[in-house]
Amino acid sequence: MKSNKKVAMIGLALMALLAVSAAGAANALYGNAAAKADKDLTIEDMLLYAAQDEYLARGEYVAIMAKFGEARPFSNIKDAEENHLSWLKTAFAARGIAFPADASKSHLIVPATLKEAFQTGVQAELDNIAMYERFLTSPLLKDPKNADLVALFTELKNASGNHLRAFQNQLGKY
Fold first, then answer.
1. C-alpha angle with apex 58: 150 to 83, nearest 5 degrees?
2. For every residue of 22-85, which 3-state class applies, written as one string?
3. What is the pLDDT of residues 22-49, one digit of tens each?
4. CA–CA distance from 154 to each of 20, 36, 110, 160, 167 (Å)?
5. Rounded to whole angstroms, how far apart are CA atoms 155 and 134?
6. Is the peptide bond before 111 cis (omega within 30 degrees of 0)?
7. How far is CA 52 from CA 67, 70, 71, 156, in A?
8. C-alpha pair distances (Å), 156 with each of 19, 35, 105, 116, 150
9. If 32 and its partner were Cys, which of 55, 127, 137, 146 is the partner (CB 3.0–4.6 Å)?
């Protein structure tokens, strides 16, 4: 009887551990990581992942500046991320979709050094560019009613290219 109880308790503990692990894995999918994992993107998905990724970039750059001081290019790029979020709000509104709240805080990772911060910026922009490039190949964006999204995602991708170069320039100083 005691061994059955023990087996049942171990089973429950394993189920709880798996549930927590699954929730953690789902929680990790945010922004471009979620976009990369999503094999069936909709317009709403693309807009959501774009907003999440812009929130994440802004949050990381704010956290980096809190740790290392208001340094360029983080300060300039943080302001650009604000503009990107504003552009996305317009696209959400045009489609009657509620703009998501900023849930990026639980996904932020603040680097230990300034050099790592620039490396983080490089990787974040590379991932962001890859996300927008994928969006731009979507058949959904061939529909003329989504021409505004083609322009928006192209503009966001190009801005990320500028941010990437700024971070690479700073990283080159190390």
1. 45
2. HHHHHHHCCCHHHHHHCCCCCHHHHHHHHHHHHHHHHHHHHHHHHHHCCCCCHHHHHHHHHHHH
3. 334 445 789 999 999 999 999 999 999 9
4. 38, 18, 28, 10, 20
5. 14
6. no
7. 22, 23, 24, 13
8. 36, 15, 22, 24, 10
9. 127
Which pair of tokens denotes residue 122? 């490089």
Separation of alpha carbons 127 and 32, rounded Å = 6
Cβ–Cβ < 8 Å for 161, 130? no
Alpha-carbon distances of 89 from 54, 66, 84, 98, 142, rounded to whole Å: 11, 26, 9, 9, 22
Confidence of residue 18 (pLDDT cuts 50, 70, 90): very low
pLDDT digit string, tens, across residues 104-119: 999 998 999 999 999 9
